[in-house]
Design brief:
The complex is a heterodimer of chains A (107) and B (304). With 107 residues, chain A is mostly helical. Chain A is built from three helices and no strands. Chain A has one domain. In chain A, helix 2 packs antiparallel against helix 3. Chain B is mainly α and 304 residues long. Chain B has two domains: 116 residues; 160 residues, no CATH class. Chain B is 76% helix and 0% strand. Chain B is globular, with a radius of gyration of 22 Å. The chains are: A mainly alpha (107), B mainly alpha (304). Chain A: Keywords: Membrane, Transmembrane, Transmembrane helix. Chain A: It comes from Vreelandella alkaliphila. Chain A: GO terms for molecular function: sodium:proton antiporter activity. Chain A: InterPro entries: PhaG_MnhG_YufB.
Chain lengths: 107, 304
Amino acid sequence: MMGDLLGIALILLSLPFFIASTVGLLRFPDVYARLHALTKADNVGLGLICLGLAVQADSVAVGLKIVLIWGLLLLASSTGATLISTSALRHGHPPRQRNDVDKHAGR
Amino acid sequence: MLAVDLLLTLAALATAGQCLLLPGLFRAVANLMAFGLVMALIWVRLDAPDVALAEAAIGAGITGALLLTAVGQLPASQRQLHHEHYRVPRRFIPMTIIVVFVGGVLWATMLALPKVGLVKEIAAVLPESGAEHAVTAILLNLRGIDTLLEIAVMLCAVAAIWSLQRAIPPPALELNYPGLTTLARWLHPLFLLTFSYFLWQGTHAPGGAFPAGAVLGAGGVLLLLTGSIGWMYRHYYNQLLRWLLAAGLLLFLATALAGLLMTGSLYGLPPQLAGYFIIAIEVAAALSIALMLMTFYLFGRPRS
């Protein structure tokens, strides 16, 4: 019972992180800022969901497997983010500077 | 759970519709990959996790990456498909999706009234099929020969790719992307573990070969693209590579012939030996599938 409540609380806590990262993906000006939003907030949200599911799991083995999924996704998404940002930089998308004009602002 | 099913159906229709109707090849490929992932979730909802895994690995991952590479190799002028005379109105796409969705739901409810189709027949043979769920039983046992014919199709695909151009050696990634090479090497033991698990599972229900091969192939593609597998490109190993690629199909055909010699009918294996033959075919088929998926990513024939 306590496990269920804790699990629900953790999963509910993850929702703001996912919403924040989705808003960031849609609204941030360039690829680096969008990656920043996705890799940080999404992974925290996913971690909270995994923890919330793990505390509700029937056995310790199942719980550990769910946490393992989170670990694997952290590895994959951080490497993926590095790949995307390095490729973007090498193919000539300079990061936005402080005084650049955002032509999509206010849309 | 009905809400989840309806959402999944809508997502599958939406991604499929965008893949077909929106202009631009890159967008089409991205939507196809999303469609593959949604399909994998739908297989999970149908209680067929092994099919889901094969769909996610092959449908979304390997095919998507192949198509992206193909788009990348096109000259820039051909990457955008211009629909000069055939312009889809903006509202057409969501309207089509909604009409198809509502129509599909209506049709499904109409079908649900009397039980039609093969539901009864499949339920009757399910205990003998070796699989616990109808979808898995159909795909992997009752129509198990399809899986082996798919291997033949994949072999043809390898031949087609090899006939197009010479192999493109992997770029030196270690200098620019050190993380990727390390990740591929670190993860490979996990890929091997999952591969062995699926094969072992396949011994008591014929059908481990395709998911197992897909997982090992995905790991292998990662290693291949990070330049960790050099031997496939070399002339010395070319003959060996060809035999390994054909091993799954050859063993299957040999089994069929052996059945013909022993019992007089094609594939008619004596029951006491059938188990060993199935294991041998499974292992050979899984290794062949993994190798074929990897050779797709040579992007052409290695030096022979």
